[in-house]
Amino acid sequence: MGTISEGLPEKDAVAEMACASMATEPPPLRAATPSRQSLPPKGSCWYCEKPLDSVKRFCGKGCADAFDEEAEFTR
Fold first, then answer.
1. Pick from 50, 52, 42, 43: nearest CA to 66
2. Residue 55, phi then psi, degrees to nearest 5
3. What DSSP character marks residue 51?
């Protein structure tokens, strides 16, 4: 019967496997919310220019989603 360490892969092999799996996995998706939150409120919707209060940035989810979609295409 061998020791436990003989049955475990070496540290270098584990590190190589971790690097290989990270290279094949897609990068995590960036959240759209921080970019929305970084926009200053301007008194109107950032997408359709509908008048808003001094706190909101978009008039609704549709405009916020459309803004994010358009921002994705203009990167």
1. 50
2. -115, -40
3. B
Q: Bridge partners of 19?
A: none
Q: Tens digits of per-residue pLDDT, 23-57?
A: 565 555 555 456 788 899 999 999 999 999 999 99
Q: Are 51 and 40 in contact (CB under 8 A)?
A: no
Tokens 């979609």 appear where?
A: 69
Task: Give the residue among 18, 21, 32 at the shortest CA–CA distance from 70.
Answer: 32
Tokens at 22, concatenated: 């990270």
Instruction: Give me the amino acid identity at 72.
Output: E
Q: If residue 34 lies in a helix (H) or strand (E), which one and from where to where?
A: helix 33-38
pLDDT at residue 43, rounded to an integer: 94
Residues 6 or more apart whose Cβ sits within 8 Å of residue 70? 47
pTM over 0.90: no
